[in-house]
Each structure stands twice: as C-alpha cells, then as structure tokens.
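User: I'll paste a sequence; please echo it back and then give the predicted structure.

Assistant: Echoing your sequence first, then the prediction.
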Amino acid sequence: MARIQLKLGVNIDHVATLRQARGTTYPSVTDAAAECEAAGCHGITVHLREDRRHIQDADVRALSRVLNVPLNLEMANAAPIVKIALELQPDEVCLVPEKRQELTTEGGLNVTGSKKALRATVQKLAGAGIVVSLFVDPDEPQLLAAAEIGAPYVELHTGRFCDCEGDDAACELDRLIRGAEVAHRAGLRVNAGHGINLSNIGRILEIPHLETLNIGHSIVARAVFTGLRNAVKEMRAAMAPYAGGRSCV
C-alpha cells in the first residue's frame, strides 16, 4: 500500500493555559504557532471555549492575521461563538460538545439528537467559505447523521482508545477503524484527535482514511523537555509511516 502524507494540526491551547495561570502576557500563542510552523506542522488548532479558560478572542484574531498554515477553530455550537467564527473566518471549524465542568472534551457530539441546529450552523459556516468538521465518536448513527446534515469532515474522538489498555484498547481501536470505514463510505473525509501521544501513535496509524491528526496536550507537555519545535518534529516523524491504516469491516 502506498504511503499517504498524514497531516499534523497542532493544538496550542495549553500554551495559553500556562499564560492564563499567572495572568501574564507570555508565553505568546503566536510565537508558539511560529515554532510549530517552523517544525513543519500543517495547521494550528485552538479551542475558543465559552468560558475562555485558555484561548481568548484576541488570540484567534492574532493567529488569523499571522499564520501561514490553516487555522482550525474548535468551538461549541453556541450563537456568540458562531458569530465570532463568521467574523474572523478561520480556514476550518470543528464543532465540539462543551461542558463548563469538564477538564477537556469528554466525548463526541450528539449529532443524531441535534441535527436541525447543527445543520443550520454547518450551512452558515460553509456559506462563509469555512470548512466544517464535526467531532464525533466512531458510532455509525452519529457518522451517518453527520453526512446527512452536510458536514464534509468528521474528526473521530480517539480519547477513549488513548485512555485504555489491553483488550479494552483493542476493542476501542476496532471501533475507530470501523467508524472510519463507515464515514468514508458515507462520503465523509476523516480526521482524528484527542489523547494522542508518542506512546499510542503507532496504533492510531492503523485507522484508515485519515487526513489530519489534531494533537495538542502531549506535544505541549513534551515541549517542556525538548522545546516546542523538537516536540512537533518528533510527532511528525512518528506519523510518517502512515499508509492508510487497515480495514476492519
């Protein structure tokens, strides 16, 4: 099987987390993005949460001015955030579920239960020229609903696999593989993300049809020891053997 170039989107939310912890002006998310670009990343991802716990509106504005790679804005389907996205027009938007109490995104969107609201937002964003992805668990009903409402991409939630070991991890990986196959057959393009690190990336590469992995926390954590540019390069090198994954149908 011929190798496919799997793209890396680097999520720099936790650079902002470090800044917000002390209320300083540093570290700079634009400087962090520049380091990621210098290391060869294919995109920058930030999550503008409703509670603004890390990334701020000004960060998104600044990134939209200076980036040389696509900006992927993760966001809830909330009217004030949708308004900001329509104003700033990032290259991509990934709609995600969001709860104030969570430490990080805990699961995929309930697409089947909110098709009307999601369809309206997908249409608004697409009308502004923004590529839209839905962050979903690898479940057939959710994937088919994503295709039904017109989303061109899904991002498979890999967090459950990344948090498991042994037989449980194997089961979750098979779910991801089957989910990617279902999405592909439904005409969806497939990204993935959440919890991916250098220890589990080898198994993630078994998932077929992937175009982009969005990885943040593990890269920023690794950067504490190696520097951000080296941490991005390490992850890119680990992704290089991707050949389109394996089928499990």
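The two ends are 18 Å apart (CA to CA). The longest strand covers residues 131-136.
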